[in-house]
TrEMBL record, chain A:
Chief location category: cytoplasm
Alphabetical list of Gene3D superfamilies matching this protein: 1.20.1250.10
Protein name: Ciliary neurotrophic factor
GO molecular function: ciliary neurotrophic factor receptor binding; cytokine activity; growth factor activity
From TrEMBL, chain B:
Chain positions covered by the region annotation Disordered: 739-842
Predominant location: membrane
Upper taxonomic lineage: Eukaryota, Metazoa, Chordata, Craniata, Vertebrata
Subcellular location: Membrane
Transmembrane segments: 639-661
Protein family according to the UniProt entry: Belongs to the type I cytokine receptor family. Type 2 subfamily.
Stretches assigned to the Fibronectin type-III domain: 130-233, 234-335, 539-632
Name by which UniProt lists this protein: Fibronectin type-III domain-containing protein
Keyword set, alphabetical order: Disulfide bond, Glycoprotein, Immunoglobulin domain, Membrane, Receptor, Repeat, Signal, Transmembrane, Transmembrane helix
GO molecular function annotations of the record: cytokine receptor activity
Endpoints of the signal sequence: 1-25
Membrane topology: Single-pass type I membrane protein
Length: 217, 896
């Protein structure tokens, strides 16, 4: 009888403890979610901004190529079919997200150097009121902002990793070129840059889809 | 405090080591600190240091601020060569704080007076306040957002001209490693250029720093997504389409230059009926998405709508709403009228007796939903309906002028009632029927009117208030009708309405006859009426004043009534002004007066008068009218004339009465009894002496007794008989008023003969008609022919005969008399009177010549002149002329 009573008391105690543990677990999970949501909001905004800006630049780069072709006169299609060496790879490298973001940032800095070269060449080739120059300026400026956003995103996502180096890796710029070479070079840089931007956009969208900010918590 | 003193001493030590080398040669006094900038409301302490001399001590120094000596209570002596002063900074003006040395008579002071003074310029200001309400915007520039970033803020606190506050706007693009863009201004707004492109999807941090010499302070930092600051242009190319199958809908399309990839926009739409003021917004939830078209629904058919569109950043809370696009107007398609036409009637007197002329009029339905082209009307006698059923409809085209259509006019007998039905037609369909009952005239009074109707203007409208009729019947609605001039209009009000405003157009200064008709289930009740003006003004015309009647002290003025169209308000009163040139008097009379009598006027005075007609909106003054009051009051002259006449009449009557009652006395006085010679006894005692034979002798000179008298005697006689000769004045002479026995013929009568030959004819008549009596001078008995004079001397008597008996000669010889009269009339100018008896005139002349030598002096001369004055003498001439012939009788006529 006593043993049965003891068994009953123990059973009641276990039930109460289970209920209490369950309640604590629910509270812990709820608080964790609240923190996750908060952190998601913290890194979500730079990601969202970066995603939108990369998409904007990518769209504007499409228009830029059209404007470029329109401003180069005859055989503009031919310029864009010729291959040129020492142009940065539009593909993003790395297996981890951190490595890929670093790759995006590094490629972006490389492209900016070539982009500046193209802008300088087209400044000599085009009149000062040419819409091409305006669009080149805009894309270049946005690319700088994009680099800042990616850096910010990287720091918010990976605060313990080394800070990105704005100088990037050493890049080989082409030697002095004639006009034809300049036009070919410009078109190839813009085309490659457009592809790169598309890759960036897709990468960022992947990051967004993977809800990196939440998983990291 | 201790710290401050330490710092001050430190400064003095520095001065002691640094300044002397520099200013040694120039000054003996030095004030520190140099060129301070001071905050308003604080206390400032300066020190005056004596350098390079021991001739002057701190006791010799004193301070002046803005030319005024600072009281010694504010001084602090540090040592023998330094003196502090503390002054409060209260004035914003820049002031000079001077350290000076008291005047001394020492040689040193005299030689160095210009070096014993030093001062500093106190610049004052305020610590800058923290700028507030910072706001910035970036506007659209074609398909981009401009890189020009405009900000404005509110400044806080004051600043002075000597210590101005500057504002620096900082804008940082985040994330970023670069320096923020900045620009400095003195104003409260500025612009900054954000690089080569607007930083879409970046964060902008904006703040303002206010700074001056007294410090600096930053505003709150505005850290928002760049899209938060964007203000785009309104949508362009807004178009509105109507579709015939959707009369209550309009489709709106628009575009926007900003690509969605650059900025996602949200839109808002508002619309209103053309001519109205209030816009109806489309709920934002309906237009929140990135749309380029929208369909407005639940609109009124056939109405013109105005539509506008605006946009902003689609992100919630981001961006500013753009301005509204330009207004686009579009009319919705037509639909069938969805309300009844507004039917009414005007009743006037008919041509015949017991007949009314009823004009049916109507307005388009409120919800006409299109252009009404015609009305269908049917007039039905309630009795006929029972007999014949419904009558045919008559189509009447809508009036092309105005909103009221005259449908039909009928002559309706007073005892008859009719019911009228109409509907309205537009291009799509017909409206429901509206109906109206016209009661028999006798029954109209059975339907009670509204009570206590008030009509008054208020805020540019004419308002009505009334109380429902005191009737057991239920009012279904009210009709408010207003008639102004030839214009009639009406509006219908609900059954529970007790006050309303007239919604139709009303003109100012026009008198409206406003009526409220209760409608009892289609039967029109008795109306209540009032006159009212929307706004009253001064009359256009003034009354014309005319004098109706003027008296000596009063005058009645009439003035015309101002025509209804020119009154422009209710005449409140008339004010009559009148003046005689000195003081203007005025009298105010009620509006219903058109005549007034001015009293207390002065007689025979010219008055100017004018009338002012007043309304509550002003007044109009008539032209002057002048009149002159009478010299005499009406009747006053008549009273005088009548009075005088009565007085005269009284005198006449009294005279007549006197004559009547005192006839005997008068007769005795004026016509004494003359004995009739014919009846005298003397005739009896000489019966053989024929009367006829005697007559010529009496008329002739031979019959005249000549009175021999001297001048004195003559005068005496003249004096005695003066009264009896009063009638002989003027041109009438009593030459023939002679006397004489036997000569008392016609010529001896008291007739008045005229000496002027021109009046001889008249004289003849007068003689013939008036000579009836003669004054006979009684002669002494001795004078009578054939009589033996009484030997006894008789007393001189010379009196008139009072006999009224006609002279015998005249009666018996009228021919002789007439001839005598005619001869007299033919006489040439004044000639000495003579008696004619048929004797030879030559003999008379001879006798007269005989008379001339006689001493008859003055009397005879007077008679020749024949003047009225001498007439008295002339009377005596006839008696004197035959003097010689009657010499024998002379003694008989001498007065006794």
């Amino acid at each position: 009888m006593n043993g049965h009573v003891k068994s009953m008391n123990f059973q009641q105690f276990m039930e109460q403890a289970t209920t209490l543990l369950s309640l604590l677990l629910v509270m812990a999970v709820d608080s964790t979610r609240a923190v996750a949501a908060s952190r998601n909001q913290q890194c979500g905004n730079p990601l969202q901004q970066t995603l939108k800006l990369s998409r904007l630049i990518q769209k504007e780069s499409v228009d830029l190529i059209k404007t470029y072709k329109a401003s180069q006169g005859e055989m503009s299609d031919l310029f864009c079919k010729v291959s040129v060496n020492n142009i940065p790879d539009p593909n993003i490298s790395g297996m981890e997200h951190s490595k890929r973001i670093v790759s995006i940032y590094t490629h972006l800095q490389d492209f900016l150097l070539h982009f500046n070269r193209v802008y300088d060449q087209q400044t000599d080739l085009q009149s000062s009121t040419s819409p091409l120059l305006t669009e080149l300026e805009i894309v270049r400026a946005r690319s700088i902002y994009l680099g800042e956003l990616i850096n910010s995103l990287y720091q918010s996502l990976f605060p313990n990793l080394p800070v990105l180096d704005p100088a990037g890796r050493p890049t080989t710029l082409p030697p002095p070129q004639n006009v034809f070479q300049q036009k070919v070079y410009g078109c190839v840089v813009l085309k490659t840059y457009k592809e790169f931007l598309l890759n960036v956009f897709q990468e960022l969208r992947t990051l967004k889809k993977k809800k990196l900010c939440i998983r990291r918590i | 405090m201790v710290c401050a003193r330490v710092l001050q001493l430190l400064a003095l030590a520095c001065l002691g080591s640094a300044l002397p080398a520099r200013v040694e040669a120039d000054y003996y006094l030095m004030v520190v600190p140099q060129s301070p900038v001071l905050e308003m409301g604080t206390n400032f302490t300066a020190t005056c240091v004596i350098i390079n001399t021991s001739e002057v001590t701190a006791d010799d120094l004193y301070w002046t601020l803005a030319g005024t000596t600072v009281p010694k209570e504010q001084y602090t002596k540090i040592n023998g060569s330094a003196l502090n002063v503390t002054v409060p900074i209260t004035s914003e003006k820049t002031e000079w704080l001077m350290c000076k040395c008291k005047k001394k008579t020492t040689l040193f002071f005299i030689h160095n007076e210009g070096k014993l003074i030093h001062g500093i310029d106190l610049k004052k200001g305020y610590v800058p306040g923290k700028p507030e309400n910072l706001s910035c915007e970036a506007v659209q520039q074609k398909q981009y957002i401009s890189t020009t970033f405009s900000c404005e803020w509110q400044t806080v606190g004051s600043q002075t001209a000597t210590v101005p506050t500057s504002y620096t706007l900082y804008t940082a693009v985040l994330p970023g490693s670069g320096q923020p863009y900045s620009v400095t201004t003195q104003k409260n707004r500025t612009q900054v250029k954000l690089g080569d492109t607007f930083p879409h999807y970046m964060t902008l941090e904006v703040w303002v720093e206010a700074h001056n010499k007294l410090g600096k302070i930053e505003s709150e930092h505005l850290k928002e997504d760049s899209g938060w600051f964007v203000k785009t242009d309104p949508p362009s190319d807004v178009k509105v389409f109507s579709e015939k199958s959707f009369p209550t809908s309009l489709l709106i399309n628009w575009t926007h230059l900003i690509p969605t990839i650059r900025l996602k926009l949200t839109y808002r739409i508002r619309y209103r009926q053309n001519g109205t003021q209030n816009w109806t917004p489309v709920p934002l939830g309906d237009t929140a998405s990135d749309i380029k078209s929208f369909r407005l629904q639940d609109l009124q058919p056939y109405q013109v709508y105005e539509i506008q569109v605006s946009c902003k950043n689609a992100k919630e809370g981001h961006g500013y709403w753009s301005d509204w696009s330009t207004i686009v107007t579009k009319r919705t398609p037509e639909a069938r009228p969805t309300s009844k036409p507004d039917l009414w009637r005007v009743i006037a007197e008919g041509d015949g007796k017991n007949e009314r002329r009823v004009q049916f009029i109507c307005k388009d339905p409120v919800l006409a939903n299109g252009r009404i082209v015609s009305f269908d009307i049917k007039i039905q006698d309630p009795k006929d309906k029972v007999k014949n059923g419904s009558l045919e409809w008559k189509n009447i085209p809508r009036s092309s002028q105005g909103k009221i259509t005259d449908l039909k006019q009928i002559d309706l007998a007073d005892q008859k009632s009719v019911r009228v039905y109409i509907n309205a037609t537009n291009s799509v369909g017909k409206s429901d029927e509206a109906s109206l009952f016209i009661l028999a005239k006798a029954r109209e009074s059975e339907l009670a009117p509204v009570e206590e109707l008030k009509v008054f203007p208020h805020r540019g409208q004419l308002w009505l208030e009334w109380k429902p009729p005191n009737s057991t019947k239920l009012v279904s609605e009210y009709v408010v009708e207003w008639v102004g001039g030839a214009q009639i209009d009406w509006q219908k009000e609900k059954r529970n309405t007790t006050h309303t405003a007239i919604k139709g157009h009303l003109d100012k200064f026009v008198c409206y006859n406003v009526s409220v008709y209760p409608i009892y289930s289609g039967w029109i009740g008795k109306p209540a009426r009032k006159e009212a003006y929307l706004e009253q003004g001064a009359p256009l015309e003034a009354p014309i004043v005319r004098l109706h009647k003027a008296g000596r002290n009063q005058a009645t003025l009439n003035w015309t009534e101002i025509s209804q169209g020119s009154r422009r308000g209710f005449i409140t009163n008339y004010t009559i002004f009148y003046t005689s040139g000195t003081e203007v008097h005025n009298i105010t009379v009620p509006a219903n007066t058109a005549s007034y009598t001015l009293t207390s006027l002065s007689g025979n005075t010219k008055y100017d008068t004018w009338v002012k007609a007043s309304t509550i909106g002003g007044s109009k003054i008539s032209f002057n009218h002048s009149f002159t009051t009478l010299r005499y009051a009406p009747g006053e002259m008549e009273f005088i004339v009548v009075g005088v006449s009565l007085g005269f009449l009284f005198i006449v009557v009294m005279t007549m009465l006197l004559c009547v009652y005192k006839k005997d006395v008068i007769k005795e006085n004026f016509w004494p009894q003359i004995p009739d010679p014919g009846e005298s006894t003397i005739g009896n005692w000489s019966p053989d002496y024929p009367l006829k034979a005697d007559t010529p002798r009496e008329n002739g000179l031979s019959g005249i007794s000549v009175l021999d008298m001297d001048v004195c005697d003559g005068k005496c006689v003249f004096e005695e008989d003066k009264a009896s000769l009063s009638l002989k004045k003027g041109k009438y002479l009593s030459e023939e008023h002679s006397s004489g026995i036997g000569g008392s013929s016609c010529m001896s009568s008291p007739r008045q003969s005229v000496s002027d030959s021109d009046e001889g004819g008249d004289m003849a008549d007068t003689t013939a008609s008036t000579v009836q009596y003669s004054s006979v001078v009684p002669a002494p008995p001795s004078g009578y022919k054939g009589q033996t004079p009484n030997s006894q001397p008789q007393q001189a008597l010379f009196s008139r005969s009072e006999s009224t008996q006609p002279l015998l000669d005249c009666e018996e010889n009228p021919d002789v008399l007439q001839q005598e009269g005619s001869r007299q009339s033919q006489r040439s100018p004044p000639r000495p009177p003579r008696f004619t008896d048929g004797a030879d005139p030559a003999g008379i002349a001879e006798q007269q010549e005989l008379l001339e030598p006689l001493d008859f002096c003055p009397l005879g001369e007077d008679s020749e002149q024949a003047t009225p004055v001498d007439g008295q003498a002339a009377d005596w001439l006839p008696a004197a002329a035959p003097l010689s012939s009657y010499m024998p009788q002379l003694g008989g006529y001498r007065p006794q």
